[in-house]
Design goal:
The complex is a heterodimer of chains A (325) and B (264).
Chain A (H helix, E strand, L loop, with lengths): L2 E5 L2 E2 L2 E2 L1 H17 L2 E8 L5 H5 L8 E6 L5 H15 L3 E4 L3 H13 L3 E6 L1 E5 L2 E8 L4 E7 L4 E5 L15 E5 L11 E7 L12 E5 L9 H11 L2 E4 L1 H5 L20 E5 L5 H7 L4 E6 L12 E4 L2 H17 L1
Parallel strand pairs in A: 1-4, 1-6, 4-5, 5-12, 6-11, 7-11, 14-15, 14-16, 16-17, 17-18
Antiparallel strand pairs in A: 2-3, 8-9, 9-10
Helix pairs in contact in A: 3-4, 5-8
Chain B lengths: L1 E5 L2 E3 L20 E3 L1 H16 L6 E7 L5 H9 L4 E5 L9 H15 L3 E5 L10 H9 L3 E11 L2 E8 L2 E8 L2 E5 L11 H6 L5 E4 L12 H4 L2 E7 L8 E4 L3 H14 L5
Parallel strand pairs in B: 1-4, 1-6, 4-5, 5-11, 6-10, 7-10
Antiparallel strand pairs in B: 2-3, 7-8, 8-9
Helix pairs in contact in B: 3-4
Classes of the chains: A alpha/beta (325), B alpha/beta (264).
Chain lengths: 325, 264
């Protein structure tokens, strides 16, 4: 049977939001191409019947449950390849996220299929799926079809919206997968370690975000002072979080948080795609960067080309004066 | 330990990138350079060699691409690779990710490295995916976006940031690892290394030399098909202020914020 198989990531008994969006998308698309929307979950005992069945709510008619090691992509690829092949799914879909890139690419290789990544939209044309994918720093969008093999589609972060289709419980089928010898060699030692302080940026209406352009960890003090004056919180890019300048909990983007505050003020952030996907829904985007060619100026509402070390302190004072007066 | 680093030439960041409307693939003419993300992979190989935890016998840069890709290999060698391999063949033109990964894996099978390193993404088209494809064809364990590698005996202790925080993963060798750009600050090549790069051994291979099944590469062998290229959805360009007088700049920012009731 033709259809779409979606991988659903979970952690500590909760499904990933991007995965749920992908399930909803698959359900919609399956209707258009006349196939079934199924999902696959892989993990341990926390994948209870009730939890797994609940994917029906988002549009999955069937869920394949596989026992296996969590958090690494290669076992997921093994499971998806087997289930897609045994049941004849033509497409394998992933929501945004790191694991999807790895597992999706491996599934495509295994099934001698094709893969597209960073997909922002999928359409059905003549019973087949076509993936839209921005390329070259979002300066062009290509439409990609699949010919003669399994089509693997890896969504961009937040590309697919969660929709409760009003379906009942999904049918659950336990599948035993014999993992490839090389797929289980990598061993997770520690998963989901939180580095740095636990800060809450998701509820803030105003965010002042800092990137590599701050120059040094102390540069965040300028962001903190401005955030205080504005009554907001401070966020950061992956580069500076990985460098240990700011806590992981404050990270925006591909492997961090997704935010949509009223004001997002980006200081020293170039605006790479991986960052953009986590903040582009913000109502007002202001960017300060000394490089006038920084991609962030292409999607900011107000861009200031200049030295943040000069601008931020004065801006902080001016905001204080305005709010105090 | 033998390390192969997969590298790629990409259009220079300073040159405008464009799609070829006829082939619907990236127009690869014009100025090229080594993919900046790949320099982190070469640097990771060099630090492994210099770290002393394990004896590194050889670092080999491997690329697939047209004749011009030799320049990327020279750059890779100037950054520390001992020699390089260039897979080039008309039959490979317009290969998609899976076909490219298959072709590169065929080269690597011949080289049989203990460790394959890649950058996290290429500056031009595909991202994050090629490592996983290569690993599947080589039947090796694989991890992407790694920001710390420690050699521990026959294994690598890798750290990376994933969906729920930082993961620490033990990956036994041989393995395919793609590194994130946070892993290191790549060194600049010395003038001597740049001058000497062209003298280091460079093997040129065709599809026949590494037993590539040509029905699995090129346009014909690729399962993805580009139907159309379109400009992105229009977004109203924002207002730009060039900061000359900072006091004035700040006043303009404050007014802008006030108009939008963001200073309430």
């Amino acid at each position: 049977m033709s259809g779409i198989l979606t991988y659903v990531l979970h952690y500590e008994g909760e499904f990933n939001k991007n995965s749920l969006g992908a399930v909803s998308e698959a359900s919609k698309l399956a209707g258009q191409i006349g196939g079934e929307a199924a999902a696959l979950v892989l993990g341990g005992d926390d994948l209870s019947d009730d939890l797994v069945k609940s994917l029906g709510k988002y549009g999955a008619s069937k869920v394949y449950r596989v026992k296996g090691p969590e958090g690494l992509a290669q076992p997921v690829a093994d499971a998806l390849a087997k289930v897609a092949q045994d049941n004849g799914y033509d497409y394998v879909l992933f929501g945004g996220g790191l694991l999807g890139f790895e597992a999706g690419a491996a599934v495509a290789a295994r099934l001698n299929g094709g893969v597209t990544m960073e997909v922002t939209e999928v359409t059905a044309q003549d019973g087949k799926l076509v993936a839209k994918r921005p390329i070259l720093q979002d300066s062009a969008v290509v439409d990609v079809a699949y010919e003669g093999g399994t089509g693997v589609i890896i969504g961009r972060l937040n590309a697919f919206e969660i929709a409760e289709a009003g379906g009942g419980d999904a049918e659950v089928e336990d599948v035993e997968v014999e993992f490839s010898e090389w797929s289980t060699k990598a061993q997770m030692q520690e998963r989901g370690e939180q580095r740095g302080a636990d800060v809450n940026i998701e509820d803030a209406e105003i965010l002042v975000a800092g990137g590599r352009g701050l120059g040094k960890p102390e540069g965040f003090e300028l962001c903190e002072q401005l955030a205080d004056a504005l009554g907001g919180a401070v966020a950061a890019t992956r580069a500076v979080v990985d460098a240990g300048w700011y806590p992981y909990a404050a990270q925006i983007g591909q492997t961090g948080k997704t935010v949509a505050p009223k004001l997002y003020l980006a200081a020293g952030i170039s605006g790479a795609i991986q960052h953009k996907v986590g903040m582009q829904a913000s109502e007002n985007i202001v960017a300060i960067n000394k490089d006038q060619n920084a991609p962030i100026f292409e999607f900011s509402d107000l861009g200031i080309v200049g030295d943040l070390n000069k601008i931020l302190p004065k801006l902080t004072e001016a905001v204080k004066a305005k709010k105090g007066g | 330990l033998k390390i192969c680093v997969l590298v790629k030439e990409v259009p220079d960041a300073a040159v405008e990138k464009r799609m070829d409307p006829d082939t619907k693939r990236l127009d690869r003419s014009g100025e090229k350079n080594l993919n900046p993300f790949d320099t982190h992979a070469i640097e990771a190989a060099m630090q492994t060699k210099e770290g002393g935890a394990v004896e590194v016998d050889e670092i080999v840069a491997v690329t697939m691409g047209p004749e011009s890709a030799v320049r990327a290999l020279h750059k890779a060698v100037s950054l520390g690779a001992d020699r390089s391999v260039h897979l080039t063949d008309q039959a490979l033109e317009n290969s998609d990710v899976v076909a490219t990964g298959y072709a590169l894996a065929q080269v690597l099978k011949q080289e049989s490295p203990d460790l394959v390193l890649l950058g996290q993404q290429s500056d031009d088209g595909e991202c994050y995916t090629i490592g996983a494809v290569v690993a599947d064809y080589l039947q090796m364990p694989s991890l992407t976006q790694v920001i710390k590698i420690d050699v521990e005996g026959e294994s690598l202790r890798c750290e990376r940031q994933a969906e729920y925080g930082y993961d620490t993963v033990n990956v036994p060798l041989p393995a395919v690892i793609s590194v994130g750009d946070a892993i290191n600050e790549p060194r600049y090549p010395s003038l001597k290394a740049i001058m000497g790069a062209k003298k280091k051994p460079l093997d040129t291979k065709s599809t026949g030399d590494v037993e590539i099944d040509t029905s699995r590469v090129g346009s014909e062998g690729s399962r993805t098909q580009v139907l159309a290229i379109n400009p992105p959805p229009e977004k109203q360009a924002g207002e730009i202020i060039e900061d000359e007088d900072t006091d004035e700049t700040v006043q303009r920012i404050v007014s802008w914020l006030e108009e939008r009731k963001l200073l309430a």
